[in-house]
Structures are given as structure tokens and as C-alpha cells.
Give the backbone structure.
Amino acid sequence: MHIRTPEEFPYRVVREDLWIPTPTGEHLYARVWRPVTEEPVPVLLEYLPYRLSDWTAPRDAQRHPWYAGHGYASVRVDVRGHGNAEGLPGDEYDERELADGEAVIAWLAAQPWSSGRVGMFGISWGGFNSLQLAARAPEALKAIVTVCSSDDRYDNDVHYMGGSVLAVDMHAWASTMLAFASRPPDPAQVGDGWRDMWLRRLEALDPFIHTWLDHQTRDDYWRHGSACENYAAVDAAVLAVGGWHDPYRDTVLRLVEHLPRQSGAPVRGLIGPWSHQYPDRGLPPGPAIGFLQETLRWWDRWLKDEDTGVMDEPLLRSWISESHPPATVYPQLEGRWVGDSQWPSPAVTMTPYELPGSGPFVVRSPQHTGVDAGRFFPFGNEADLPPDQREEDGRSVCFDSAVLDGRVEVLGRPRVRLRLTCQVPRGQVVARVCDVAPDGSSTLVTRGVLNLSARHGRDRVVEWEPGATEDVGFELNGIGHAFPAGHRIRIALSSAYWPWIWPQPGSEAGWVLDPSHSTLELPVRNPAADEGAPAIRFGEPEQAEPLGVRYPDAETGTQRPERRVVRDVAAGRWRLEVDPRYGGTRIYPDGLEFTENALETYVIDEGDPLSARAVSEWEVGLRRPAPGWHARLRTRSELRADESDFIAVNEVTCWDGETEVFSRTWERRIRRTAG
């Protein structure tokens, strides 16, 4: 799609790189885009570990200069121990990172070119720490835009889902961050001391997977940095943004529900059809919107005291998708924008759908159920989204509604209530809602998971008494979707979902469902609520001039398949190979050549939960031909489990040119307390 690039902005823009001091004496590397003006201006901060001088540079170039051209100093800062920042890498969102963030905000507010008012924005990690710092309420921080982020680090992040270990992303993201943290600083920015700086970082590494598996229930480790623990602490104005194809979208619903009641902080929510991307990037699924213009309304209101009308918008603006056939990518989805002035909305009614049939039904899914789940973090790639769910439905027990005689719009989080009998102490329940067309095709609408040992709370482990019958309930992820007349609504239940969910020992036994005491509750929205409401509209996408990075792999078509399933029929073994497609090889205008090759592999035998194994392999190289600098690294991470323990093995090897400068292997056994 076309993204407009203005020929000129209201202000001419200058850029400089500088170092921001921290309370402990280290300095963080920063890049500042400022408008040319004699007047002090508000400051916008994006604070990430993702290397501003290379990895995020293409995205940064499209956003920060745009904000500067509209009268803001826009600043991108590397987190301590990452990119070109001094210090050693720590855990994600640890106390040091957040304390540094507070110091950065105070420093920016005190600069002569600053008005003293700071806003903060970011997607994913940057959205997380924006929200976390807003909950610490530094004086200068007046507003944030948090995109694709979470207020609940335990139950709505990459680690756990419904109390179950997220095999597909806990391991994959820990492996990704191990490869990120192992990358060297760039001598073009830090000088000749780059190698010593690199080696000090490498010696301090500890794979994230160790810490994350040490905390298998919601405890103080996860409460730290989770805004849901104390919404009242948030003082800044919050614009919360998500996409229905992003795993963090439920945070938007929680923020618009709880901030008005508990904090009083101004808040607005926006959920579109998007994946884990900024809404103006034009990546599937669309439609994209003029997101920078929309955020400018937010900044002008809260950092410049201008009445932009942004607070006249509904509390929650959300997209309701029309029914669509199953596909792994949608360039554009049909649908419409709706507005709700409060949340929960009086226009939405939780409507029960009884499960047909007298039962009981045994649910004993093969362990490879979930191979067609799609990517946990869709990024807008060709193979991200779930394909036709008919094969997954065949591995599940399904209940279909009658053929719909009218349109049913849902907006919010469905819920299931199930009566189960289980013969083993551990297990998991997976529920999927699908839109079944007259031709039988099945499109995944939403899903949810419950670790049965977490049925009484995510902060405790209560094993099932073998042979006992209990009622359990859990929410599914939020969605905006319209089921048309002539279709059916399907609820599909399974006892396995690999590789999203790490299978419990003994879970191959499954469980028994009593449908007569089980229901699906859908949040049905009354379309009449929109009568007389003003139409919700956005401008067309607009960004600053692209950086001009070349991507040779994409140009030559030499990339491997994004997702490939291999089945060994005789052995009953399934292997899913995933290329995460984070960018591959790229060549920057300043001469930097950056190569990146990653492959994730997930293996399971269809009858054995203890056969599950996840492997992630990375190769990264950074080279500047002119000065002759070439650094590279290789990582390999593997996770498997027996009945009592997880076994994590991580390896890192690094080279300066052809000389090996670092090599280490970590091997940890971690008790399976809940996962």
C-alpha cells in the first residue's frame, strides 16, 4: 500500500547522537531528532534494548523525524547493556532498567531545548516500559502511547497463558534475546573499546529462560512491572493501542475498564485488525491508518495543552471484522469501526450458547494438535495466521451452533464454563471459537487456555484429584468479529496445543466433558448502539522518508519457507520449522552490513507429551568493510522436559574476525512446579 511521505514538515529537523548519564555512572546511547526553533519543545521518548544504530534504525527513521518535524524533540535510547549503551544487560523490565528510565526522563526534561514535559511511546518492549514507567509516575512524564503491550507480565506476555508454559514463545523469545544480548557494540559509535565492552557483556549473560521457568506461578517476580497490580498508580494520560491479531490486545480492554475507575488518568483505547506492528506500517492485516497523526493529537493535547478533540472520541474505538475465509495472510480485512463510551459496554451482552449433545465426551487429543495454530506473534508475514482449522477441529471435540438466521457481532472476551472429569493430576484445556462457512471451511476467531492446576488462581498449584468432577471457567482472547447469517459458530475443545502450550506429564489421558453443564458465552454487541453516532475516521498513513536500507534476501527470493510441517508417518513424529523473519540480511546507508539467520524447530510424538522439544538457532554478523570490522556470533537453545524437570541447554559462541573470543554453554534442570 502507499504510505505518504511529506515533502516538508512544519519544522526543519536536525539529528544528533549523545550520551545520557545514569545514577550509577554509566551512560546510555541516545539519538535525538529536534525541530529547528528557538523555543523549548516537549520531548518524546522511545526506550528499547533493540539497538538504535542498526536493528530499529529503519523504523526509527520513519517515526522520530516525523515527530520532530511537528514540533517535538523525539529521542530513541538504548537500554543499558544493549546496542551502544554502557553497562551490563539485565533481565527484561528489571529495576535497573526502570530506574534508568526515570533518570532519562528527568534528564530530558532538564535540557535547554526541552519544555520540561515528556511523553513516552513504544511497541512491545517499548510499550511495556512506557506503561511501567507511567505507573512509577515520574514528575515530567505527562502522557504515553503504549502499543501492543501488556499490563500483566505473567498471564498476558510471552511466558505463560492460562497458567501454562508458552512453549512457542517463552523459549523462542528467550533464545531471541540471548542472541540480541550477545551482539557487540559498534566501534563506529563507541570507539576502540568496543571489544572489551562486548566481552564484559558476554561474561554477564544469563539466559532469560532460567529465570522465567524458576517462576511458574504468578509471584512477586511477575507482579513487578505489571500495571494490573495497581492501576491507581498510573498518573499520565494513556493511549492504549492493540490489534486483534496481536496476543496483547486484551490489555487495551483492561486499561479502558480499570483506569477510569481506579486511577482517574485520562485514557483512550484503540484496537484495529492489526498484527504486532505499528498501525501505520501497512503490514497485513490492514487497513492501516494515519497513526502518527492520531498520536500527534494525543501529544498536542497532553504536552501542549491544545484542544485537539481527542478526548471527544469514544473511550474505546475498535474494529469489527466481517467474516472471512481462512488464510495465513490478509492484506486487507473488511469491517467497520465502532465506538463505545464506556467499558464494559452497555451495548455488549454476554450471551450463553449451550453445547449440544448429552455426552459425556472423551477429549483425548493427539499431542501435535496445535500445529496449525499459526504464529503467537504475527508480524504481517505470509505464513503468520492460522490456516483452515478443519484438521485441528478433527483433532478436537467440536460443538456447532445451529445455522445462524441473522448476523451476530461479538466484541470483547468470550468465556467458557466446562464440567470436566479428569483421571490424572495435571492437564490443560484449550478452547477455540471458529467461524464455519456453508462450505465447511473453519476460520479461527479466538482461543483460550487453562492449565488445570491453575483453575483456582494463577498464583497457586492445585492438582486435580484423579477421578473427580469439577466445573472450570476461563476467558478467551478478545475479538471483534461478525458471524453472518448462514454460518455456524463452533467451539472446539482439545487437551493439547503444541507448540503453543508445553504439554503436562500424563496429559495424554485427556479428560471427559459433560456438555449438559457446559456453555460458551459470547460478548454479543447490539449494532443498534451505533445509530446516530458519528462515523469513526482516520487519516491515511504518513511517515518520514525511509532510511534506504537494502534487504538482499528479499530481493533475491532466497529465503526459506516461513513455516514448514514435516511428518514422520511411521514414527508418529511431527516437526514444525519456523523462520521468524525478523529482517534477515540488510545493508545500511552508512556501510554497515548486518546478517541475521534464525530457525526455530518444534518436535513432538503424537502420543507422548514427554517427547516435546524446542530448538532455536541464531547466526548474526556485523561488518563494516571500510575499517575491516567483522564480528559474528552463533547461539543454540534447546528446551525439553521429563516428568519432573525442564532441561534447558543454551550455547553462545562469538568471533572477532576469525578469532573466537567467547564460548559458553549453560545447562539447567528446573523443577516442573506448575508447567
User: Anything to note?
Assistant: The radius of gyration is 25 Å. The first strand starts at residue 13 and ends at 21. The domain at 349-530 is CATH 2.60.120.260 (Jelly Rolls).
